[in-house]
UniProtKB/TrEMBL annotation:
This is N-acetyltransferase. It comes from the Eukaryota. Residues 34-203 form the N-acetyltransferase domain. It holds the Pfam family Acetyltransf_3. Keywords: Acyltransferase, Transferase. GO terms for molecular function: N-acetyltransferase activity. It comes from Schizosaccharomyces osmophilus. Belongs to the acetyltransferase family. GNAT subfamily. Gene3D superfamilies: 3.40.630.30.
Length: 203
């Protein structure tokens, strides 16, 4: 999303920065891991496809993504939006967080008739690629900072998001616990993909 091309979110030890071309090769190395692809329900891409995906995440108006970097020796703090790309090294990358907008459908009653109503939903994805940074509470900081940005930036209103949703592999228990803690409720289990779907209404 062009909206965040020059934006960072500073949480002290964690900083969210736009997904840039210089991040792609490291990201591609991460996604060679079958475990990560299973946990994130992702497909294996070539380097060329990964660069195309990066461009899509940066430019498409229905996608928003940040790379997460970790600063050793820095204390955690409340998120602060910076209108610049914070200084960081590729080796400090530990994961990413993103959303993409899709159209949801629900049946509503109107004048004693059932009609299909549409709404905009934001599907969230969180990945901490480096195992040594998992189960340390960092996922909570990342998600809360990401949602803070969406709400404070005006994106919530301009994109008319009605709810957040996630789709997570049923074996990804840390993610399921995290989103439950953040107020998400399970709405569906998709057996063919072994995925749990959870959602959190906004309005």
């Amino acid at each position: 999303m062009r909206f965040n091309q020059s934006t960072s979110i500073d949480c002290g030890n964690l900083i969210l920065v736009p997904y840039l071309e210089r991040h792609v090769l490291k990201y591609h190395e991460w996604m060679k891991s079958p475990e990560l692809r299973e946990l994130t329900c992702s497909e294996s891409l070539t380097v060329k496809e990964e660069f195309q995906m990066q461009k899509s995440w940066l430019e498409d108006e229905d996608k928003l993504t940040f790379i997460v970097v970790y600063k050793h020796g820095v204390e955690n703090k409340k998120p602060q939006v910076l209108h610049e790309i914070a200084s960081h090294h590729i080796d400090e990358m530990i994961g990413d967080v993103n959303m993409f907008l899709t159209e949801g459908y629900e049946d509503v009653e109107e004048d004693q008739n059932q009609i299909c109503s549409t709404y905009i939903q934001a599907e969230l994805e969180l990945m901490i690629a480096k195992p040594e940074f998992r189960s340390k509470g960092l996922g909570t900081t990342i998600i809360e900072a990401f949602l803070y940005y969406i709400e404070q930036s005006g994106l919530l209103e301009s994109t008319h998001i009605a709810k957040y949703i996630i789709r997570v592999g049923s074996k990804n228990l840390p993610s399921l616990r995290l989103f439950k803690k953040e107020g998400f409720q399970q709405t569906k289990y998709v057996a063919c993909f072994d995925q749990v779907e959870m959602e959190k209404s906004i309005r």
